[in-house]
Amino acid sequence: MIKLKCPPSIKVLEAAGAIADGRIHLNQEIKGLISAKVISSEGDRTYRVFIKKVIDGYSVYSDDNGTRFRRYIGYPIISVLMLTGTVPRNPDVEEALKGINWRRLNETYKKYSLVEEIILRRIGNQNKVEKIENFKKNVMSRLRSMHIYYDPSLGKR
Predict the structure, then answer these.
(1) Is 125 left (phi over 0), alpha (psi -120 to 50) or beta?
(2) Are residues 6 and 77 in contact, defined by beta-carbon separation less than 8 angstroms?
(3) R_g of the chain, CA atoms, integer Å
(4) Containing H/E element for 34?
(5) Fewer Cβ in 10 A, N or C end of the chain?
(6) Could you give the CA distance from residue 92 to residue 138 in angstroms, rounded to a whole number?
(7) Could you tell me the pLDDT band of residue 156, with boundaries at 50, 70 and 90?
(8) Measured between alpha carbons, how far is 103 from 10 in angstroms, rounded to an integer?
(9) Once rounded to an integer, what is the mean pLDDT over residues 109-135?
(10) Residue 10: how many other CB atoms lie within 10 Å
């Protein structure tokens, strides 16, 4: 098992947006294993997510590129952790991030900081932007404090 790195902070926003869009489908937890399907922002991909509590943290699997190839906690995992109450959620933030085509923006601008700047500028309302920034910081702080391990064997289910 490989300890996953913290994600780029925009992935927290992407996870919240996925929840607002209703793109996370949790399955019934079986023997401590949480499984879910997460639909991409364009609707053309479905990611499989598995999460299991282990002694010192969480053993996880997701077939998104960030998790598999870049070894950070991908947005599909973050969204499931949010829905299960493991990391913070904020319905106001989720609603503000609804309907964003993340993949198109990420592929067009090729720089997460620029995409985040564009999204926050579109939101415009300074109070909402501050709420989003605080939410992102809280979730990132929680993720930094966790031990999350990539376990490819969970994906063989």
Answers:
(1) beta
(2) no
(3) 15
(4) strand 33-39
(5) C
(6) 15
(7) confident
(8) 12
(9) 94
(10) 20
Which residue, chain included where needed, has tokens 């609603």? 95
pTM, entire model: 0.96
Domain that holds residue 83: 2-156
Query: Is the Cβ–Cβ distance between 73 and 14 less than 8 Å?
Result: no
Site of tokens 């996370």: 24
Instruction: State the total domains in the chain.
Output: 1
Single-letter amino acid code for the residue at 106: N
Structure tokens at 86: 């493991």
And the tokens for 99?
């309907």
Which pair of structure tokens corresponds to residue 23?
A: 């793109």
Tokens 């282990």 found at: 54
How many C-beta neighbours within 10 Å does residue 71 have?
Answer: 13
Residue reference for tokens 């019934």: 28
